[in-house]
Amino acid sequence: MWLPALTVLLVCLAAQGCILFTPSVTSPPSVKILPPNGPIFRGQTLALSADVSDPDGGRVNLEWTTSMGACPQPLDASQRPTTMPVGGSDADPTFSFALQPGDPATLCVWVLATDAQGATAVDAMPISSQNRAAVATIEVLAPTTKTAGGLFELYSVFHLSAAKSHDPDGDVVSDPQFALVGFPPAAMPTPKLVPCPAAMPSDLLACLDVGGFAGTYTISLTVSDGFTRSDAATATLTVDDDHPACVSGTDPGLDASPIVLDPSEGKTFSVEQILDDGAPLPTPADGAHAAPTFAWKVRRNAGAWQPIVGYDHINAFKVTESTYATGDVVDVSVTISDGVVMHLQPACDPRCPAGCPQSAQWTVEYR
Amino acid sequence: MTPGRAIVLGAATLAFAACAASSAAPGRTGGAGSGAAGATGSGGSAGGAPACQVNVLPISPASFDGLPAGPSSVMRVRGEVTGAVPPLFDWNWTVSLADGSPVSVSSVGRDPSLVEFTMGSVGTYTIAIALTGTSCGGLRTITAAKPGGRVATFELRVTPPSTERVPAQTLERQVIGGTPTGGNVLALDPGIVVSVAVVRAQGGDALPSYVRITDATSAAVLETHTSSDGPSTLRVAQGMYRTLVVPDGDVAPLTIPARSAAELGAGPMPLDDGTTIAGAVTDESGAPVLGATVVLRAGELVSTTGTTDATGAFHLRARAGTFGVAVASTLAAGRLEATLAAQGGLGGLVITDATPPPALAIKLQAGPLVTGTVALSAKDAKSLTTDTRITLAALPPFADVATLALGAGAPRLLTGDVRFSLHAAADGTLTTGGVPRGFYSLTVFPADADTSDAVTTAMLDLSAGNGAQAVTLAQKVMLKGKLLPADVAAGVRLVALDDRGLPIVSEGDAGPDGLFQIPVSPMRSYALRALPRPYQALARASFPAVAVQNIDVTVPDRSMPAALLYAGRVVDPSLQGVGAALVQAFCAPSTAGCIDATTPIAETVTRSDGTFQLMLPDPDGTP
């Protein structure tokens, strides 16, 4: 340590007396790394600053380096690493460096201050970085459509993805673990999350087939950053109650009645489209829906209705030629069902025609 | 993906076959336009130039038609940029199969507009070109077929939802055996909006009417009922249409010969009342018959319905033509209908606009009516309830059941029929009510389809007067068979439908060994349809009709057709996808093996983007 005193050299000449002067004396600079504000996280870019001064008032150059592990106590300047130094000066006494995700939790930041005279000072500060857990995120890839009420349709097959999970420290997110933590009590058999068929990469996806059970399904997801597991993210998937089915397309159209036919003509009446979460018609090729049923009946001249048996699964009914006579007026009716006795959700699919028709009726006038 | 770089300096249409290879650095095309037109510049097109697009042209083979699949089937194609050519772009080629799997693409020489790929497997190959850095691209779908695959034609009936302003229409498409295809676009004709309005010729008031429009080619029918509120709107595809108009009131119906879709909606159809025809219906004693109906028919054209009053008089209205006559008198449980054919031995009733026809004198001479009583019995009580349907028809038709006289002319003889719909009493007894003497066919439809009791037809002899008879419902027999391949066909639902169109249906499922047995009513003939489950890679099938006697019958083994993927997209005239459209496939009547051209062999609804998938029968046989 240099003392802050001036050495005064007096040179006395006997005849001319004494001349007083100040000789060239160097004082070492001082440097002190200022502690960072707040916690330090792995993967974070950290900016440190130092308090630098030089009693001599000259420029002070800085040289920042880091070493693994804790700083030596007491500070031993000889242990200061010298490789890959980052320069600086008292004019800009800051040092920025990125804590790589793979860095150990503690390292030592060194700074060497050198003044214009070559005098030096060293300081070091231990930096302890903390690991932040990854953030799990559940993304619902499918289905992409919802009901008008913002709910998922019955018979949905959910494709859940963990791909949007991330780690704030920049670590690689891995080992997603989905869990079904809540489901409607009536769901039988117990629904399960399963790997999605033919999905790539399959380890980031999970599939859930809710079948015909409405209600709320709660999915949780945790992921790992290699150090710790994340907090659980949850997704709540509310599956709409079964809606009543409606007849949305017939042939002939219902507005054609009364239809005029020759008794020698046959006529086929058909339900061409049914809108329903549980039993649409035609059954979509990619769906696993229950088939609707049909109750057909006819009556002649406003007499008693006669059910047509055996047509429960047939969406078309043909009135055979020569069944009725000139002057007869025949009504043909069909009522559809999706097999649900009591719909908890009384409203039809919003795409249904007004009145949510669950039956269709045509009138034929034979002449 | 095969990227290549290109610089195009000219603004003109470039045929890269002519210029690219010689003037381009490797992987990059430097174009000076075509020939003398190759002005330099900073790119972009001259004002008004059409939008840039890339056409895919076949180089080798020289056509996209009839391409075979196989390890040596290499397709070489060239991209041709047209329209407003951007100044700088990369060629980005991708080729994929219908399921999205990529196909390796190779550059040919130094020309980035020229690539080739191997069509190793059958199916649809979608060739996509994107000129990166631009919005310019091109798309082409080609099919590599199984060599020697048979071709089948299907008719695809597309019915857009009512919210779409596009008419239902039928498009014909071919598939090649063993060759699934994707990327098929069904572009719908915009059609023509037809405003259907029927008005009175005098006064122009709206005349509510039943209107039937029949496609003269396909016989497809559109029906509507106009109201007094205004015209009905129909949207029809281009074509020729016949029209039948049947007004609700006392106005004679009208038929209009085939005319174009544009002419259909040319304006309201004015109708006068037509020619009035009067007459009377009496019985053998000359007493008036109350409540009889009289209708004249000339093919599709009919008259109004005349109904007799207490004096037996009626009147009706008709247009000019040669008509047959139908007279239906009300019996206890149905009608006795007497008819004179329009082209019968004595000819029909000729009506002209000029001369009012003489009055029609119709005499019913069915003789004294008799009553039949039937004691019905069944093995299962559920079969005989008040819901049990029973029909009664004359067997054979009655001869000379009525006469028709026109003025002083000789009476013409009418043949007759009885059409009854009956209900059994709760105790299973049945009374026919009064019917003419003769032989009748009585058919009983059990009230419950799940019992062993069969739909039973019995003859009822009432030729000698009132009669009583006991009818015990027959028992169902088994229609047995086996679907092949047995392991694949397990679970297929088989439906047996009465071949004559009576509402008689039975169902059964093929077991794990492909065997099936369906309980059916005996003494009938059944068309057999096989309906695979959605998860099965099989297509629906119709098999030849099977006659079933009183014992179990085993039909020859039937092979299920393998399903062939036909994926596509329904688009409207502006090429926007049409969602929620019903797509039904029918076999074309001209195709060999098409047993039933009226029942869809596949059907689905389009997704919101218009895409759909159908599983059509593979013309190349079994799975």
Folded structure, characterized:
The complex is a heterodimer of chains A (367) and B (623). Chain A is mainly β and 367 residues long. Chain A has no helices and 25 strands. In chain A, strands 4-10-9-6-7 form a 5-stranded mixed beta sheet, with no helix packed on it. A 5-stranded mixed beta sheet of chain A has the order 19-25-24-21-22, with no helix packed on it. Chain A has a 4-stranded antiparallel beta sheet with strand order 11-12-15-14, with no helix packed on it. In chain A, a hairpin with a 4-residue loop joins strand 9 (106-115) and strand 10. The termini of chain A are far apart. Chain B is built from 3 helices and 51 strands. The two termini of chain B are 34 Å apart. In chain B, 3% of the residues lie in helices and 52% in strands. In chain B, strand 20 (240-247) and strand 21 (254-260) form a beta hairpin. With 623 residues, chain B is mostly beta strands. The longest helix of chain B is centred in the first third of the chain and has 8 residues, at 16-23. In chain B, strands 23, 24, 25, 26, 27, 28, 29, 30, 31, 33, 34, 35, 37 and 38 form a 14-stranded mixed beta sheet that branches. In chain B, strands 1, 2, 4, 6, 7, 10 and 11 form a 7-stranded mixed beta sheet that branches. A 4-stranded antiparallel beta sheet of chain B has the order 3-5-9-8. The interface between A and B is large, with 51 and 64 residues.
